[in-house]
Amino acid sequence: MSNNPFDRWQSISESDAEIVAALKEAHVPTLLASLVHLTGDVTLIRGDIRPTSDFFGDPQGGISEEDQDRVRAMALDVLRTYRDGGCPRPPTPGDHTVQEMVDFITGETLSADYVGFLISELSLRGEDPYGQPGLMELPAAARGAFKVIIIGAGMSGILAAIRLQEAGIPWQIVEKNSDVGGTWLENTYPGCRVDSPNHTYSYSFEPNDWPQHFSDQQTLLNYFRRVADTYGIREGIRFNTEVDQAVFDEASGNWRLRVKTSGGSEEILESNAVISAVGQLNRPRWPDIPGQESFQGAAFHSAQWDHDCDLTGKRVIVIGTGASAFQFVPVIAEQAADVTVFQRTPPWMSPTPEYFQEIPAGKHWLLNHVPYYAKWFRFWMFWRTAEGLLSSVTKDPSWNDQERSVSEANDELRQLLTAYMAELCADDQDLLSKAIPDYPVAGKRMLRDDGRYLQTLKRDDVHLVTDRIREITPTGVVTESGRSYEADVLIYGTGFQANRFLWPMKVKGRGGIDLQTHWDGDPRAYLGITVPGFPNLFLCYGPNTNIVVNGSIIFFSECEIRYVLGCIKLLLQEGRAALDCKEEVHEAYNRQVDAGNANMAWGAPNVSSWYKNEKGRVTQNWPFSLLEYWTRTREPDPADYRML
Ligand code: NAP
Fold it and tell me: Considering the entire predicted model, what is its pTM?
């Protein structure tokens, strides 16, 4: 076992036969990259075996079975030598070799910028990819005198606490729930699971032996609970306590937070800085449909699932076909007598055969034992599910049919995904016509699918209704065409009030200005993190930091917290109380982001989604590459801030 916390692989003691068995499960391009580490022989990836980039097709990148066997035979020799030699840490390859490895795995020629990014992100040189260099060199007393309050103990809040703790900066979390986990604690609907690959949806410093490629809600919740316990975070959390007001005091440069406990008592907490880690998808959105209150059966929102409501033998109506309904409809169809799904806009589906599959034993072994295998697998996932897809969802202004696709590559994607749905609905053309979206691929989040959603909609006891809802009655739903649908239970899969960042907290900055008034329904922040007039208030998962193609939000949070640590470092270095983002920097940045979003499939004018606010502006999404966000948030530029 390596001593470096970022090199988590275990020594190999398994027999040749056991290694052979595990290699059967190998992702061959990843294996080849690991072999370059182990042998130092870069010619292994310069030969005739080369994967091609194929986002929804063959995961082995078109490498023939015969060639895969050749690689496995070579890997056995290499791993045997490594094992018999006592498993020494392989030397780190040079930049040029890393570039070749990156190009090999992606099947493309990437810019040299990716090399620096990957050397760090994959911790190839053993460094902490999201540490803030220089912070620990500042006097411990100065660090120890700077107190931070974090709002929320979900994925970002836990991360912020871990990083502050490592930096010797006192922190406290205020959490409205009785446990950690945030969205993974609150969303308990049947079928809830992560739709970003788990090997990217995990903290860089806490890789996990995930049981599935896309694990279920309980596994995710257990992961965040375990990480919080491992780092001793729970002791610093005020559970069952909600921040209802945060006020910046200009005289002291401090924040004062009014918190309310579930028992009703109030208290004022004071800190030098506040990190909001409240998430974007936190407050359920109930639609405003006439007669909604009149329904006499059980009615609940997907994020507040009523587990006491037994659906067995019941007639159920579901409103919405977003990411949540997409996951729970196939499960409840197994219990209910009858399910009617009201669809306003159909989702695009990305074919993911392994969506519900367990990770086989051999793959676990490779991830846990072969040096660098897990890191390159993480990168391959990162490329295949996020970064590599970006060019296919970017607008080509010269492309004719902007309503249905935004570029030739986007149109190819449309054809590919349409063919996938057509095959699943070969025996149900009516369903197919309802299921194919009329907006470009990635206009909304693509939903992962192994075929079961459309199979479910084909059941005799499941009905997809595209007629708009006119009203809700005591016994069901009436559509605009006048047809009635009766139900015992009404489930709202209608999403979240994502545009109301930090709501319902009252946040007051310099001059007593209220954050919601200031935003006026159009939230913006510099890098999604800082807002002019609100010094030392740092947002995690703030405006324009969401991603549509399924990269990992944990990646963003790690970048954000590294940046926040950089801001604190700046304050301590300069001996100042607070920093305030310059208005002009914020404005110029937001102009760039708006132009970027207008250039993406989700910015297309005919797409309506929770990514846009009432004014039609995309307030949620980051329009550029993940590399770009990583680079911009490495550390703050002092010129962007006014020091107070
Ligand atoms: P959502 O994507 O916002 O979907 C809400 C659905 O309700 C949409 O189909 C919407 O239709 C429909 N709707 C809203 N008001 C309606 C009305 N008055 N009449 C009829 N239909 C109505 O919400 P969500 O499914 O909860 O997902 C939200 C986000 O959470 C996702 O995009 C994703 O980022 C995240 N999420 C992630 C996972 C995961 O990782 N596994 C799982 C669930 C959610 P329109 O599309 O026409 O507005």
Answer: 0.94
